[in-house]
Write a structure and sequence with these properties.
Layout lengths: L1 H21 L8 H16 L2 H12 L1 H39 L8
Helix pairs in contact: 1-2, 1-3, 3-4
């Protein structure tokens, strides 16, 4: 998930950078371009230019566009599934602790 987030940010940076280059020099720099200036060194420290180029190619491909479109749904559904799983594990741990302390019938 962390790699995907980084890839998405990389794509954002590349697209935003291209858009910024298209702006006329007389126009003021917007907040998004300033954010790019802060984030570029971070990405440069972790990914090579070639890797970023590959990510851009992926995210501009039909599959990359499809992933971008469905990613919010995947994230939302994954979050719900993780919460449900956490609740089950939490109950299991709680029941185990209660049994160990003699506070819960063994068949629960």
């Amino acid at each position: 998930m962390r790699a995907l987030a980084a890839a998405m940010c990389g794509l954002f940076l590349t697209i935003a950078s291209a858009a910024a280059q298209e702006q006329q020099a007389s126009r003021p720099v917007d907040a998004a371009t300033k954010l790019i200036d802060v984030l570029v060194p971070i990405y440069a420290a972790h990914l090579t230019r070639s890797e970023l180029d590959d990510l851009v190619r992926f995210y501009t491909s039909p599959l990359g566009q499809r992933l971008t479109a469905v990613q919010p749904d995947i994230l939302r559904e994954s979050t719900v599934a993780g919460q449900q799983w956490g609740e089950v594990i939490g109950r299991m741990v709680g029941d185990s602790l209660a049994r160990a302390q003699g506070n819960l019938p063994p068949n629960r």
